[in-house]
Specification:
Elements: H1 3-32, H2 41-66, E1 84-90, E2 95-102, E3 113-115, H3 119-124, E4 132-137, E5 140-151
Parallel strand pairs: 2-3
Antiparallel strand pairs: 1-2, 1-5, 4-5
Helix pairs in contact: 1-2
Protein backbone atom coordinates (compact mmCIF):
# COMPACT_ATOMS: atom_id res chain seq x y z
CA UNK A 1 0.00 0.00 0.00
CA UNK A 2 1.19 3.53 -0.62
CA UNK A 3 2.27 5.82 2.22
CA UNK A 4 -0.63 8.14 1.30
CA UNK A 5 -3.14 5.26 1.57
CA UNK A 6 -1.67 4.12 4.88
CA UNK A 7 -1.82 7.64 6.34
CA UNK A 8 -5.41 8.05 5.16
CA UNK A 9 -6.41 4.75 6.79
CA UNK A 10 -4.74 5.74 10.07
CA UNK A 11 -6.60 9.08 10.02
CA UNK A 12 -9.93 7.34 9.33
CA UNK A 13 -9.36 4.92 12.21
CA UNK A 14 -8.44 7.79 14.55
CA UNK A 15 -11.63 9.67 13.49
CA UNK A 16 -13.79 6.61 14.15
CA UNK A 17 -12.24 5.91 17.56
CA UNK A 18 -11.96 9.45 18.88
CA UNK A 19 -15.02 11.20 17.37
CA UNK A 20 -17.66 8.78 16.07
CA UNK A 21 -17.52 6.16 18.83
CA UNK A 22 -17.89 8.70 21.70
CA UNK A 23 -20.91 10.24 19.89
CA UNK A 24 -22.61 6.84 19.66
CA UNK A 25 -21.84 6.03 23.29
CA UNK A 26 -23.35 9.36 24.28
CA UNK A 27 -26.48 8.59 22.23
CA UNK A 28 -26.79 5.21 23.98
CA UNK A 29 -26.49 6.88 27.40
CA UNK A 30 -29.15 9.48 26.50
CA UNK A 31 -31.53 6.81 25.20
CA UNK A 32 -30.95 4.65 28.29
CA UNK A 33 -31.95 7.58 30.50
CA UNK A 34 -35.36 7.73 28.80
CA UNK A 35 -36.60 4.63 30.56
CA UNK A 36 -37.90 1.25 29.38
CA UNK A 37 -35.27 -0.20 27.01
CA UNK A 38 -37.50 -2.92 25.54
CA UNK A 39 -39.58 -0.38 23.60
CA UNK A 40 -36.95 2.34 23.21
CA UNK A 41 -36.29 2.73 19.46
CA UNK A 42 -33.51 5.30 19.97
CA UNK A 43 -31.63 2.93 22.26
CA UNK A 44 -31.81 0.03 19.80
CA UNK A 45 -30.82 2.27 16.86
CA UNK A 46 -27.83 3.61 18.81
CA UNK A 47 -26.77 0.06 19.75
CA UNK A 48 -26.98 -1.01 16.08
CA UNK A 49 -24.88 2.01 15.09
CA UNK A 50 -22.34 1.14 17.79
CA UNK A 51 -22.08 -2.44 16.48
CA UNK A 52 -21.62 -1.17 12.90
CA UNK A 53 -18.96 1.29 14.03
CA UNK A 54 -17.08 -1.31 16.08
CA UNK A 55 -17.10 -3.61 13.06
CA UNK A 56 -15.59 -0.88 10.85
CA UNK A 57 -12.96 -0.11 13.51
CA UNK A 58 -11.98 -3.79 13.80
CA UNK A 59 -11.77 -4.08 10.00
CA UNK A 60 -9.52 -1.02 9.66
CA UNK A 61 -7.32 -2.20 12.56
CA UNK A 62 -6.92 -5.57 10.84
CA UNK A 63 -6.04 -3.94 7.51
CA UNK A 64 -3.41 -1.77 9.22
CA UNK A 65 -2.06 -4.76 11.14
CA UNK A 66 -1.18 -6.54 7.91
CA UNK A 67 -0.44 -3.50 5.72
CA UNK A 68 2.98 -2.96 4.22
CA UNK A 69 3.98 0.44 2.90
CA UNK A 70 5.74 0.14 -0.46
CA UNK A 71 9.05 1.99 -0.83
CA UNK A 72 8.52 3.75 -4.16
CA UNK A 73 12.25 4.37 -4.59
CA UNK A 74 12.70 0.63 -5.18
CA UNK A 75 10.05 0.40 -7.90
CA UNK A 76 10.79 0.64 -11.59
CA UNK A 77 8.68 2.23 -14.29
CA UNK A 78 9.49 -0.09 -17.18
CA UNK A 79 6.68 -2.56 -16.34
CA UNK A 80 3.21 -2.09 -14.86
CA UNK A 81 3.04 -2.98 -11.17
CA UNK A 82 1.63 -1.77 -7.87
CA UNK A 83 1.66 2.06 -7.65
CA UNK A 84 2.22 2.43 -11.41
CA UNK A 85 0.37 5.26 -13.13
CA UNK A 86 -0.57 3.86 -16.53
CA UNK A 87 -1.61 6.00 -19.48
CA UNK A 88 -3.43 4.01 -22.12
CA UNK A 89 -5.66 4.22 -25.17
CA UNK A 90 -8.85 2.23 -25.53
CA UNK A 91 -8.46 0.90 -29.08
CA UNK A 92 -12.22 0.29 -29.38
CA UNK A 93 -13.03 4.03 -29.33
CA UNK A 94 -9.59 5.76 -29.21
CA UNK A 95 -10.35 7.22 -25.77
CA UNK A 96 -7.32 8.06 -23.63
CA UNK A 97 -7.36 7.19 -19.93
CA UNK A 98 -4.98 7.07 -17.03
CA UNK A 99 -5.19 4.93 -13.90
CA UNK A 100 -2.95 4.28 -10.93
CA UNK A 101 -2.78 0.65 -9.79
CA UNK A 102 -3.21 0.55 -5.99
CA UNK A 103 -4.09 -1.85 -3.18
CA UNK A 104 -7.78 -2.80 -2.91
CA UNK A 105 -8.16 -0.59 0.19
CA UNK A 106 -7.06 2.52 -1.70
CA UNK A 107 -9.09 1.99 -4.88
CA UNK A 108 -11.20 5.02 -5.84
CA UNK A 109 -12.29 5.41 -9.45
CA UNK A 110 -13.05 9.13 -9.00
CA UNK A 111 -9.38 9.66 -8.12
CA UNK A 112 -8.24 7.43 -11.00
CA UNK A 113 -7.08 4.64 -8.68
CA UNK A 114 -7.97 1.05 -9.60
CA UNK A 115 -7.50 -2.03 -7.45
CA UNK A 116 -4.67 -4.36 -8.35
CA UNK A 117 -7.31 -7.11 -8.18
CA UNK A 118 -9.52 -5.51 -10.87
CA UNK A 119 -9.68 -7.17 -14.31
CA UNK A 120 -8.02 -4.18 -16.02
CA UNK A 121 -5.12 -4.05 -13.54
CA UNK A 122 -4.67 -7.82 -13.72
CA UNK A 123 -4.37 -7.61 -17.51
CA UNK A 124 -1.88 -4.72 -17.29
CA UNK A 125 0.47 -6.22 -14.68
CA UNK A 126 3.94 -6.92 -16.04
CA UNK A 127 3.27 -5.27 -19.40
CA UNK A 128 5.44 -2.56 -21.01
CA UNK A 129 4.84 0.62 -23.01
CA UNK A 130 3.48 -0.25 -26.45
CA UNK A 131 1.93 -3.55 -25.37
CA UNK A 132 -1.72 -4.17 -26.27
CA UNK A 133 -3.87 -6.08 -23.79
CA UNK A 134 -7.36 -7.48 -24.16
CA UNK A 135 -9.57 -7.29 -21.07
CA UNK A 136 -12.96 -8.88 -20.53
CA UNK A 137 -15.16 -6.23 -18.85
CA UNK A 138 -18.93 -6.27 -18.22
CA UNK A 139 -19.65 -4.46 -21.52
CA UNK A 140 -17.51 -6.87 -23.56
CA UNK A 141 -13.91 -7.18 -24.70
CA UNK A 142 -11.77 -4.06 -24.31
CA UNK A 143 -8.41 -3.61 -26.09
CA UNK A 144 -5.98 -1.25 -24.41
CA UNK A 145 -2.59 0.00 -25.66
CA UNK A 146 -0.18 1.12 -22.95
CA UNK A 147 1.13 4.60 -23.79
CA UNK A 148 3.07 5.47 -20.63
CA UNK A 149 4.08 4.06 -17.27
CA UNK A 150 5.10 6.34 -14.39
CA UNK A 151 5.44 5.90 -10.66
CA UNK A 152 2.53 7.32 -8.69
CA UNK A 153 3.39 10.38 -6.62
CA UNK A 154 2.60 9.93 -2.92
Amino acid sequence: MSQEGYDKLVAELHELESVELPKVREAIAEARDKGDLSENFEYHAAKREQARLLGRIRFKQRVLEFARVIDTSRLGSEKVGLLSKVGMTNLNNNARMSYTVVSPHEANLREGKISIKSPIAQALLGKKVGDVVAVQVPIGMMKLRIESIDLAQS
